User: What shape does this take?
Amino acid sequence: MRLLRWIEFLRNRLRTVVWVCLVVLGLLVVVDALPGLVDKEHHAHTAPERWPAFWAVFGFVGCVALIVLSKWFGHAGIMQREDYYDE
Assistant: This one.
């Protein structure tokens, strides 16, 4: 029951929750961009890995590409009409 109350509490304050999440993500990007806090020189294998927020952007683009390609693939022939089994 406590979990339900917590979810309802957060749902009633959705704008605040979104704002706090955006601030936290912004702070993480800033911390990632500050030299010296995150050692990228010794652990990076390629030049783009040294860019701030590279892996976050890479992951987001990968997710978007996966969604777009799977929708295209589904509409290209995997999906059937809703009345497929009625015939």
